[in-house]
Every structure is written in C-alpha cells, then in structure tokens.
C-alpha cells in the first residue's frame, strides 16, 4: 500500500547517532526520503509545521508485558498498542510470561501474526522464554525459536538460579548470535522481600531486598557470558553496586549490555513511603544514590538501554496491604516523559537519552529502525519536549493504570506518532 508523503518542517531533529540537535525538516513516506535541509516536497505531500517541536525516531521498548494470551483483563495487543503509540513507542519487545508461556514456535508465530493486526500498527516483537514454562530448569529450543522470529530470550521476572542452566543457554545461543536477557537477582537473598533493604524498610516494618541480591547475580552472569562468548543483557538494573562489575566486563570485551527501568532513573525508595503500592516494583526502587548512579551510567553509555518495564496490574492486585500487593507498573505512555526528567534536570544530555531508547536497542536487536537516516523506516515521533502535564493514571490508555507517576508533573508530550509513514497517534485528534 502506498503511503502519502509527509514533510515536517520547522523542527528540531534529534539524530541519536550524533551528539547534537539540529534545526531542519524531514520528508518520508514508508521510509525516510530526506532529512536536514529538505528543499521541497513532492506534489500531494502533506506538509506539517512542527513549530519548533522535536522530531525523533520512534522509541524501541525492550521490556513490555502484555496479558494476551491468558490475562487479557490486564492488557491486550490492542490496548498496549494504543498506549505505546500515545507514548511514542513504535516497537515493543513482548515478554514471554503469558499463559501459555511463549516457549515454542507456534506461540512466537501467534505474536507475530496477531500483534500487528490488533496493535494499531505498533511493531510487537516476541521475546521467547529461555527455559520451558519459565521454570529455570529445561532450556528451550533457542535455534528454532530464533528462526521462528524471537528477537531475544528471557526468563521474565524469574531469575535462573542454576548457573549450569544459564551457562548452557549462553553457550548454545552463541551458535545463533542470540541475545539472552536476564534480570540479575539472587532468589534466595531476595526471597520474601518487598522493597529495598535499608532504613526506610526497617521503619516501615517491611522485609527488604538487598542490593547484593542483584550485584552477586550480575557478577555470575557476566562471568558466564565471558566463559561462553554469549551475548547477555543485564535486564533492569537497579543498584549502583552492580555497575563496577559491568564496567570491568565491558572493558574486557565481554558481549554484555544493560538496561534500566525508567522508574529507577526518576524515583527512589522514598516514593514507597506511605506504603504506596503503585511504587512497588521488581527490582525495587532503591536509594537516591543508586538513582543518581544509574543516570550517570546512562550518560556515559555504560547502561545501554532505557525500558518502560511495562507490567500492567489491575487495581484489585495493587490496592492491598503492601506485602500482599503485586509488583509492577505500567510505563508505555510515560517512558519518554519520565526519561526526559533527566534532561530537564541537566543530568543527562537529550541525545544520550534518546539514543538509549532508539538507536542502542535497534543495534542490540539488529533492527533497521531507531535512527533518522535516509532509507530508514519512517517510524517517527513529533514531541513537545517542554510541555508539562500532570499524570492522571485514570486517563491512561492501558487497560491497567498502576503508575508510580500518578499525580506527578512530567514534561514531554508526544504530539504525533508515525509508523511506516502512517499516522497512528495524533494528540490533537
């Protein structure tokens, strides 16, 4: 199907491959045709005056939980697609913790066929389970799943305790260049914990999860990646204590990457005070020192990717006593605005933030998207970076509304989202 050409002029262009923002225009149909000092548009093109707003590649979110199949009351492809488009996310990697678990080729195929039909055009890429049923014991058929279209392999929120199992998976994955995403957490140290272990947890009388639960497991994971030559993503880091090991491993040439949940860049354990269950996350929000260190790691490129950690939970699962409430928060619609907090505070340059949500995920997943370049897919967003808004979680497009940003003021509103050159979200509509 032909896509009508679109010219967006009078814009600020954020090219994540560069460390600067440039004034200019962009012309695209299904792909980007021209960018920068665009001379003219073809006859019949739609012309949009950006009014000085920013143009960026569509965001690539590498950590999204969708309820379909099995928990459609929490989230469906359709509702996740609406939320993603409103948040400027044009590609999302779907976690395998569905019912049934995405651990065979037929379920990978189900996501690839059903997702685009129901998501409103947002690309949904499946992450297949690393172990059968996510039980941490029997490795899945990584080669067959990769051939079917799985873009990476994850055990979701169930860290693999067995070093032997993870070693075998990393070793086997090297034959296919497959990416293993693993959230480092020692399940024995973390068992029973519901928030960061520290003075606040003690005052609230809540069992804590020590930062060592992450750093110990991260050291193991990096060692196994070095031993096998496998590609590993340390998924959703939360602690400054983990960062030195990551830096050393990267310095030795280990094929290691790292992601951080946007909530851990903006919030800290104090946001749990008052037993706020909407801020109950896995891994938990940690200290202010941890938050600052994670932001610095994004600035330096030590942490490669910022994710939403989108994990929808319904009200009846969150409005419970803190120890009984479910972990998780929605994040597709607040990924960009949340991350921009670090830009507005002067902590991380705009280009570094956008790179961590576009180009770096694309490079790690080996996708052609995530860049503003001639010939690249026209997955493009128009953003008013300075626009303030107070988040009302009841107005989120997700089927669930468990956001720790509820009633907080954020800056950065997506005005339009294009995928393959087609308008899929218009804030003015």
Describe this structure in words.
By secondary structure, the protein is of the alpha/beta class. Helices cover 29% and strands 23% of the residues. Strands 1, 2, 3, 4, 5, 16, 17 and 18 form an 8-stranded mixed beta sheet that branches. An 8-stranded parallel beta sheet has the order 6-7-8-9-10-13-14-15, with helices on both faces. It is globular, with a radius of gyration of 21 Å. It has a single domain, classed as TIM Barrel (Alpha-Beta Barrel), CATH 3.20.20.140. It contains 14 helices and 18 strands.
Structure, briefly:
This protein is 29% helix and 23% strand. The chain starts with 5 loop residues before the first strand and ends with a strand.
Jot down its keywords.
alpha/beta; TIM Barrel; 14 helices; eight-stranded mixed sheet; 429 residues; eight-stranded parallel sheet; single chain
What's the CATH H-level superfamily name? Metal-dependent hydrolases
Overall CATH class = Alpha Beta
Report the CATH topology name: TIM Barrel
Work out the radius of gyration.
Answer: 21 Å
What is the correct CATH architecture? Alpha-Beta Barrel
What's the count of strands? 18
Based on secondary structure, the structural category is alpha/beta
**Ends distance:** 24 Å
What does the overall shape look like? Answer: globular
> How many domains?
1
Taking all residues together, what is the mean pLDDT? 96
Q: How is the main sheet built? A: 8 strands, mixed
Q: Fraction of residues in helices? A: 25-40%
Proportion of β residues? 15-25%
Number of helical elements: 14
